[in-house]
Amino acid sequence: MLHLISGVGAKGPACFLIEAAGKRLMLDLGEGPPPGLFPKVDDIGPIDALVLSHGHRDHVGGLALLPKLGNPPVYATEIVLRALPDGIAGRPLPVRGRGDVLGIAVETGRNGHAPGGIWLHFAIGGGLLYTGDFSAESMLYAYDAPPPASTALMDCSYGNYDAPLAECWNKLAPFVERGPLLLPVPANGRGPEIALALLRHGRTDIFVDDAMQKALLELCDGAGVSLRGNVGADVRRLAATVKPIDGARGIMLAGSADGTSGATARLFGEWQNKSEPAIVFTGYVNPTTPADLLIKSGRAQFMRWNVHPRLSDTVALVRTTQAKTVIPAFCDRSQLAALAAAFAPARVTMDGDLAI
Ligand SMILES: [Zn+2]
Fold this sequence. Notes:
Helix content: 25-40%
Structural class: alpha/beta
Order of helices and strands: EEEEHEHEEEEEEHEHEHHEEHEHEHEHEE
Strand content: 15-25%
Radius of gyration: 20 Å
Number of strands: 20
Shape: globular
Bound molecules: zinc ion
Distance between the termini: 6 Å
């Protein structure tokens, strides 16, 4: 059985439960996007393991709930385990390869979305694929194609949106040309990818906060396994090029992406009532966050930078996995009809508890 606890039918924290071979495995345990929004786990009871797809807060931010679930072991890649709080009983999964979770065989591959991020393919029924978040078009993070699976629980964050990453750059480029520009970004995701695009377009006036600097150094070292094969030299050049933010100049990348914490919270305080630098948000904007308020007041702009699959990517995944049942995750229920039409003849559902 696959239980959709949270993350299907509305943007919300990822949390799913598989019951198979006498075991109860939870997939992801997130918080948000709105801070303080957690999956409801009070009635679930003890589970045998938690398996994490990647380290973003909406997938791992609920770890404080583990005592309610019997403090199970936590399976994830070493890169993701390293960044978790102390006291977690971590069990490593390969970034790309085969492993097992309590005797259930699992195949993993890189998700093209975040350092150490993976999709998971469990040998349950005719195969159960959980993509976590994924992107097939990242120029920085590698994406491995998953094998066939009869059931696919897949990232459909963008619903039927279908514009390519090249279009994202075309929209951002005029702001880059005009400068100075602040781009609030997650350091372990979109941030390094946008910085790489800037470098490849000839920009060397790139300024970053500590979180971005640390993320770039990790990509040069332990997290390099998550990179595309042809970008290692550029990432090292990028890490050597960036300088600390020291005022409103150049192209600046800093966390957090929504201005609730980190360097951006401080910089918004300094710059929100000034006309410069331009501020452009490129990811999901939570209602009532500083990001949302700055956009609504006209001080900042929103321009998406793809880090989730477009419709053509999710359609391609349904075709290559030959999935008979597809559960679109991380988008609103209003997308269901469009996705069902695009994924036909697969059965597409967002409802309840599924036998797999
Ligand atoms: Zn993510």
